[in-house]
Amino acid sequence: MDSAVIADRLTKKFGATTAVKEVSLEVYRGKITALLGGNGAGKSTLTRILSGTQTPNEGRLTIESRLIDFGNYSPQQARSLGIRVVHQELSLCTNLTVAENVLLEFGGTFRGVGWRGKAERAIKGALDAIFPQNRVHPGVEAGALSLAERQMVEIARAALDPGLRLLILDEPTSSLDARRAHQLLAYLRKRSDSGLSVIFIGHRLGEILDLAQEFLVMRDGCLAWRGPREATTEQDLIRWLSAADKKTESRARRTGRIPAVAADGAEIRVEIDRPFLSTNAQGKLELRGGEIVGLAGLEGSGQVNLLRAIYRSRRGSLKGVRRIGSVSYVTGDRQKEGMFPLWSTLLNMTIARQTRRRPWSAVSEREERKWALPWTKRFSFTEAALEKPITDLSGGNQQKALFTRALLTETDTFLLDDPTRGVDVGVKAEFYQTLQDLAASGKLVVWHSSEDGEFQNCSRVLVFAKGYVAKEISGIEASREELVATAFGLGATEGTATAEKSGPRWYFPNWLIPLLALLAVVVAIGSLNPHAISPFGIGLLLGGAMPLTLVSLGQMYVVGRSEIDLGIGGFAGLTNVISATLLVEQPLWGVLALLTGLGIYALLGALIYVRRIPAIVATLGSSFVWIGLGYALQPMPGGSSPEWLNRFFNLSIPVVPLPVLVIAASMVVATLLLRTRFGIVLRGFGNNLPAMRELGWPAVRFHIWTYLTSALFGLAAGLCLTGVNTASDVNAAVSYTLLSVAAVVMGGCDLVGGRIDPIGVVLASVTLALLGALLGFLQVSSDYIAAVQGFILLGIVVLRTMLWRRS
């Protein structure tokens, strides 16, 4: 057989830890190869070596008969060789649309006018080919999709590559229900028959045995066994996957259990009524302590909605659900809802206990460690693992940490949203036993799983269809065939009542609230002085708003990178000084000074990224530099505006005042820039930096471009100050720095996450600028302007939060 990949004695070390040790393997063309191993066995590290994101310390790698030079091997080169990876932790940017995420993967394919439509058609075709009738709309934000839908988009995006030769899938079915998993496996068989090589990483041995033709088993960073499908069985794989001791092996072999059953008279923990029950249901559904209740059905049929309703419920406070007693929740989306990425594993485990403490009580790390010890031992967490950031752990160990957090709270009811996703066979067996122990102690466990075989561990199973509990069966009867037949037999379709179509949804636009605030201020000014809203009056009022608008737009781009620029006001002030002095007296030196300032700003952006200096610290320091240089050039306010700048700001345009045109033009430019490839990549870095690195985008270059763009808007703001005031003062724009942050927040942008909105920012900045005029008409001292701006900011943030929660 022809070999697509040949690895020879690959070794990768992280300090004293050897993640991959002398691994030699072959992946054959047109074959599906299963890569198996427990959590932390080295699978993900080996995958990253193959995809060019990590460099081994030793060994050789040959791909498509080409010996790889690791000194030059990168994700870009791997993709040029036809290698695509779908990671277990999804690499989508949730602030971008599905089509924009496709652009990140295929930046060179979709170019020119109409690229967005081309990308949308391409990803829609790939989704339909793999997952028929998926209802994922390419124009919707990835963050609005369910976890399963994001998994589907990730797989379809990788499959789009016309030069695809090797597809590496890390736990691709972990978030998919049985139907979607079946569709994916059928697609992989078809592509394999046409010559595609596939490496499939997973823990569901049944589906892997039906799919794969070759097997590679890793344990403790080493290749423990390799061979064809004909040479192995499920029990053989379990033996290779498990640790050497017989206790672990026997635990992993156990599959049959006596499901927990609530004792007679056991206390009711949860009552479920309509709309979670069908109209034919007789009475309420009661869940009692001492039982494990499974939630089954096709993906998106209402299982997760019920879990969330139980969690949010208080006695009699939520329609359809009544909960009695305390509750803990283990999310299935650990990246988005479960982990505190900057904290250690131990802190992630014990954080839920802190909610029971008094606000000012001391927290002892020794006490927390002692409290967690029984469970950390049970799930085999080492001392080193507890001290590490949780993001350094494998996906399965992260999930174990979140489950441990729920166990430490010792609540009456445990709600589990697919908790074994990405967990290996041995840990699953331990997990099943833990659930039995919880039920035996009188706890209620409500368990949603995408793996149908797990429901045989349940007392009973509630099968969902179209958003409600359509049938109840016992755990013993919960075979995969029975569950699938029940779900489809009840008429469940691809689009259920609770699984909304993921097409473009209507929300309150982020700029709506700033627009209403601006209209309120304008109406108030007009009622006090009607002449103020004439074209001449508007021109005067908005003349002072131009610089703040431009500074706010520059700030917006830095916020798009999840950073804050505290130097942009000072830079605008320095530009104001240079344009009113050097540009007038020595134009050439003035231009060189402005270009030097832009260059220093770009260099600052590179320094922040390369040296990992917090942006707030670096830009705060730079603000003192800008102001100091301004004082050196002009100790006292003065100077004059260049003649060409005077002519521009004295232009007489019929009907529409010049400041309105300048503000509108800046908004259009900023909006168009965000929709370009630069804007999409910028927002991608602000949302998911690791994913952007995995995709091979040059982080330093785009960080430089981000700060250079901010500086250009700051430079334009300084020129506006000179043109409007016909003089300069280095302190004229200092207050704009914090006002720009306020405008960004008021305008509907998120300070982290890469979500920004130029229209909202412009409306908010104009509103803040006009407040001074309004207070003047009201004969209120200018000393109160900052306080009024602060109250308006707080009011808009509160209103936005209320609307967000409601949506």
Protein architecture, described:
By secondary structure, this protein is an alpha/beta fold. The chain has 4 domains: 159 residues, Rossmann fold, CATH 3.40.50.300; 67 residues, no CATH class; 215 residues, Rossmann fold; 295 residues, ABC transporter involved in vitamin B12 uptake, BtuC (Orthogonal Bundle), CATH 1.10.3470. It is built from 32 helices and 19 strands. Strand 7, helix 6 and strand 8 form a beta-alpha-beta unit. Helix 3 packs across helix 27, helix 9 packs across helix 16 and helix 13 packs across helix 15. The longest helix is centred in the last third of the chain and has 27 residues. It is globular and about 85 Å long.
Summary of the model, kept short:
By secondary structure, the chain is of the alpha/beta class. Helices cover 49% and strands 14% of the residues. The radius of gyration is 30 Å and the shape is globular.
Tell me the CATH architecture of the largest domain: Orthogonal Bundle
User: How much of the sequence is in beta strands?
Assistant: 5-15%
What is the average of the pLDDT values? 85
Using the coordinates shown, work out and report the CATH topology of the largest domain: ABC transporter involved in vitamin B12 uptake, BtuC
Number of helical elements? 32
Cα-atom Rg, whole angstroms?
30 Å
The CATH C-level class name of the largest domain: Mainly Alpha
User: Which term fits the overall shape?
Assistant: globular
